[in-house]
Amino acid sequence: MNMSKQICIMKFGGNTLANKQKLLMAAQLIKARYDKGFLPVIVASANGNLTDVLLDHAYSISRNPDKRELDMLITTGERVSVALLSIALRDIGVPSVSLTGSQIGLITTCAHTGADILTLKGDRLVRELEAGHVPVVAGFQGIGENKEITTLKRGGSDVSAVFLASQLGATHVEMIKDVDGVYSADPNKDLQAQKYEVLDFDEMYKLALNGANVLHPDAVRLAKEKGIEIRIVHYQTGQTGTVIK
Questions:
Q1: Phi, psi of 196 (to 5 degrees)
Q2: Per-residue exposure over 185-215, b if at least 16 CB sit within 10 Å of its own CB, e if not
Q3: pTM, whole model, 2 decimals?
């Protein structure tokens, strides 16, 4: 793909898009990258509360809701995020387009509520980038080989972002979080917790497996395999707190 501008993958966690104020802040952060001459590709999570509300609805109706229908239901959460974020971006002069996992051709296995990514099919993302648009992609979801809408494992937006970076030739992914980096312990509970400036993939993988909620372990493993640096970026400052490489 021959593009003069460098592609910049930015993944926004659900907490960073949880209300109008945060959505507008996210749009400004994307605009800052866009104005510097980058071509941002955005991967957005659903507001976590919304996903939980949707699941509560389903389980209040049925003790054992059908998994296909659950995927149909909870993928609407990311659609809310990407549409609102794209509206906010267009309002401040950034030409953006919201896209679902199926629209970009993110092909997954056929397993509902826990699919794995297989490949990226088609050139929709490349065409949008070549047209100068900022794609705002719904994370955590794709389309099965059987043309059914699927969701990845919970936290799968991290995996979506790293996978898209590998497909688009990006060197790094910015994981936009409501924390300012990776710590040796929970800084809210342990005042002695130290922030890591740099971590290698194996160290981060161990931390993720041991319950550090900053990154999905599968995303760390994929980043190591593809050689893609991960930067933990605070949503308010836009500053990188921890680099994983």
A1: -85, 130
A2: eeeeeeeeeeebeebebeebbebbeeebebb
A3: 0.95
Instruction: Assess contact for 151 and 207: CB atoms under 8 A.
Output: no
Q: What is the dihedral of CA 201, 205, 206, 207, to 10 degrees?
A: 100
Q: Kindly list the distances between the CA atom of residue 42 and the CA atoms of 158, 209, 213, in Å, as whole numbers in the listed order.
A: 12, 26, 21
pLDDT tens-digit series, residues 117-156:
999 999 999 999 999 999 999 999 999 999 999 999 877 9
Whole-angstrom distance, CA of residue 9 vs CA of residue 11: 7
Q: From CA 102, how far away is CA 17, in angstroms rounded?
A: 22
Taking domain 7-244, whether its CATH number is 3.40.1160.10 is answered by yes
d(C-alpha 236, C-alpha 218), whole Å: 26
Domain locations in the chain as residue ranges: 7-244
Distance of CA 33 to the CA centre of its chain: 17
Q: What is the pLDDT of residue 4?
A: 60
Percent of the chain with pLDDT over 70: 98
Angle at 226 between CA 74 and CA 163, to 5 degrees: 20
